[in-house]
Amino acid sequence: MPNHTSDALPRRIADAHVDAYTALDPITGTYLGVPESSRHLPDFSPSGQEAVASLTRTTLDRLAEAEKRPGAEDERERRCARLLRERLTAELAVHEADEPLRTVSNLHSPLHAVRDVFTITPTDTDEDWAAVAARLRAVPAALEGYRASLAEGLARKLPGGPRQVATVVGQLAEWIGTDGGWFREFTAPGPEALRTELDEGAAAATGALAALRDWLREVYAPAVEGAPDVVGRERYTRFARLWNGTDLDLDEAYAYGWGEFHRLLGEMRTEAEKILPGAATPWQALAHLDTHGAHIEGVEEVRRWLQQLMDEAIEALDGTHFDLAERVKRVESRIAPPGTAAAPYYSPPSEDFSRPGRTWLPTMGRTRFPVYDLVSTWYHEGVPGHHLQLAQWTHVAGRLSRYQATLGQVSANAEGWALYAERLMDELGFLADPERRLGYLDCQMMRAVRVIIDIGMHLELEIPAHSPFHPGERWTPALAQEFFARHSSHPAPYVESELVRYLGMPGQAIGYKLGERAWLTGRAAARRAHGAAFDLKAWHMAALSQGSLGLDDLVAELSVL
Question: Taking the CA of residue 520 as centre, how many other CA atoms within 13 Å lie in the half-sphere pointing to its CB?
């Protein structure tokens, strides 16, 4: 970390941490738009992980000193300091529990970070492609570091979950392919002048994927056979703090999930009756829409349709419910590369907006896309959801700190806003059509189910007596998958992918509903405080301009805006 932090206040300490962190993690550098990061990949070995932890400890020490200096009591400094301490303390707790030595996930792991970063690495010029070739050559060492961490985990009797391992082996097989694999396809548009370098780099990267697949299949999978896929209360509590920025009352959250389940089920039945009178369940009506409802045919056609949906939302909301800067209005619809998890996702803009925010749709081999399943989801991923929040953070980073706008993101804050955004569009009348509204409620139901099964299966809680499903039994992953499948419109491969995601990212999936509850509670408190003078547009922009906050602080800050 640069020496100029010796007499700095918290915001400067935080931003120096971003600089030092991106030097250790070039993947984060690429997401931020740091050009020199494009040639490199992180060290995922145990020593590389310890280097990040050492930086974290140093920053916490410097923060403690910074808070003693004149000026640290300034509101902007105080808010940044609180976030920085909470985030770094939560991250360090996970590291010191050796969790990175057993990280196997179908969505969130060093392996996935390595593949995904290529989708946002610049490829506009020959110089960009030369950097891509260098990064491809770095893939074998990065994946070897990840393998070394997992091997160290085995040596310390810290196994990853068998179900996650089997899923990742399948993902690797898809990425490797039979005709050169994903990396060869990715480099195909590169310039002929660099063809040899790109082909050799793609082959080396694909070879590294194959080596990792073989090791996972032949060494790691047999070693973890019989290990639990769930993590238990102690580990879950640690992860819940990491993803949510608060020490949750997990039993209260579990009960809240059930309350939302029953509320939403009643609303879904009302909407389902409008679509398919006499339907036995709302999901029977949704299955009817899969065949007979409005839909988009074709992969490129659905990409363009989603782009239009976001463009129309920006036009309708700007000036009425939001005040958007021109660069925040730019967002791109993309198709996700094959072999990703099933759920759509969003990638934020670079710090200079040279790379815009992007939404990503995994097609899972489909070419027909029911509209009910897309509209609310794109209000969540795009506008007014993730894009408006994370792009606005980037836009106002100069008034906050780089850390508050980027590295300090709290998952439950962002996912809570995005779920609030879906609800906002319903409140504003954008989901009046029964198909779209039932799709919205199905999305809401999935987030309530996540709270129930994520907490329930990892803590092996009892299913309550008021449940329509196996009352009195204890949750297991098998029961969780069956419950999810019964209460979702999604096909079996999606349900399977989602369950593996929850097993590999304990505590993350609950942040959608719990985060939405925090946003709604804060809005209601602000509305009560201002009375008839409450201005929703002004509140939205103030809320979106405060940067990241954990759920510990979010309600308090939103309530006084």
Answer: 16
Rounded-to-integer distance, Cα 68 and Cα 9, Å: 9
Taking a C-beta distance cutoff of 8 angstroms, is the pair 550, 246 a contact?
Answer: yes
Other beta carbons less than 10 A from residue 332's beta carbon: 18
For residue 427, give the 3-state DSSP assignment. Answer: helix
- DSSP label at residue 368: E
Give, in order, the Cα–Cα distances in Å from 120 to each of 29, 290, 384, 387: 11, 33, 22, 16
- pLDDT tens-place string over residues 374-387: 999 999 999 999 99
Pairing assessment for the beta strands 357-361 and 331-335 based on DSSP bridges = parallel
**Residue 395 in contact with residue 327, Cβ under 8 Å?**
yes
Helices (H), 401-510: 402-405, 411-427, 434-459, 477-486, 492-504
Beta carbons of 377 and 444 less than 8 angstroms apart: no
- Please name which of 407, 423, 414 lies closest in space to residue 389, comparing C-alpha atoms: 414
pTM of the complete model beyond 0.85: yes
Taking the C-alpha atoms of residue 133 and residue 137, their distance in angstroms, rounded to an integer, is 6
* Coil/strand/helix, residue 370: strand
For residue 360, give the H/E element and its range. strand 357-361
CB of 551 within 8 A of CB of 253? no
Residue 6's pLDDT is what?
60
Taking the C-alpha atoms of residue 372 and residue 383, their distance in angstroms, rounded to an integer, is 17
Residue 405's nearest CA partner among 546, 539, 522, 516 is 546
Helices (H), 369-433: 375-381, 386-395, 402-405, 411-427
Terminal C-alpha separation, the chain: 35
The mean per-residue pLDDT over the stretch 330-347 comes to 90
Give dist(CA 448, CA 212) in Å, integer. 36
Q: What is the tens place of the pLDDT at every residue in 253-311?
A: 999 999 999 999 999 999 999 999 999 999 999 999 999 999 999 999 999 999 999 99
Pairing of strands 357-361, 345-347: antiparallel
What are the two backbone dihedrals, phi and then psi, of residue 462, each rounded to the nearest 5 degrees? -80, 140
Tokens of 556: 């308090």
Q: Which residues contact residue 499 at a Cβ distance below 8 angstroms, ignoring those fewer than 6 apart? A: 453, 477, 480, 481, 484
Percent of the chain with pLDDT strictly greater than 70: 99
